[in-house]
Amino acid sequence: MEAGKAVLVALRRIIQATDLNAKLLARQTELTTSQILVLQLLEGDMQMTIGDIAKQVNLNQATVTAIIDRLEERKFVERHRGREDRRKVYVSLSAIGREALEQAPRLLQSIFLDNFGKLADWEQTSVLSAVERIAHLMNAAYLDASPVLDIGPVDRSAQKAKGAAPAASKS
């Protein structure tokens, strides 16, 4: 097989693996990859502001607000005002959210990061360079993206509720 076609096949496999993992998550937890990431982040820190969450998961604040809204509707997270500064609103993981996390399958990006971290430094640099070059070759280097392996909108539940068609996402 021609090298260019072999690269396209490998890319397609990555897209399929991402899609299958997102579908598994949705089937088992009714959560998106981004929602799981937020829950995992809150599991580590007892409480965080939406701005802090947005920085940690590398999503914009409006997207994180929508994610938190959906999670709060399902009672996975709770919002509360700060004790010292009542203007600040903090988000924390609820017992229901903790239980959902325990039952969630492992995220594909966690598996990738574990395996990638086991590579030698030179190999990590080589993989990064090749993938960045592929993004450039596909005219995708300019796209704003977060390190979330997911297909479709980051907060699909918001679009589903509005009956909107899926749109391109920054994930």
Q: Residue-averaged pLDDT, rounded?
A: 85
Broad CATH class: Mainly Alpha
Strand residues, percent? 5-15%
| The CATH homology group name | Winged helix-like DNA-binding domain superfamily/Winged helix DNA-binding domain
Number of DSSP-assigned strands = 3
Structural class: mainly alpha
**Low-pLDDT stretches:** 157-171
What's the story with the biggest beta sheet?
3 strands, antiparallel
Order of helices and strands: HHEHHEEHHHH
| Helix amount | 55-70%
Features:
171 residues; mainly alpha; three-stranded antiparallel beta sheet; 8 helices; elongated; disordered C terminus
Architecture overview:
The protein has 171 residues and is mainly α. The protein has one domain (3-162): Arc Repressor Mutant, subunit A, CATH 1.10.10.10. Helix content is 60%, strand content 7%. The chain contains eight helices and three strands; from the N terminus they run ααβααββαααα. The chain has a three-stranded antiparallel sheet. A hairpin with a 7-residue loop joins strand 2 and strand 3. Helix 3 crosses helix 4. Mean pLDDT is 85; it is low at 157-171.
In terms of topology, how is this protein built?
Blueprint: H1 3-29, H2 33-44, E1 48-49, H3 50-57, H4 61-73, E2 77-81, E3 89-93, H5 95-103, H6 108-117, H7 121-137, H8 156-162
Antiparallel strand pairs: 1-3, 2-3
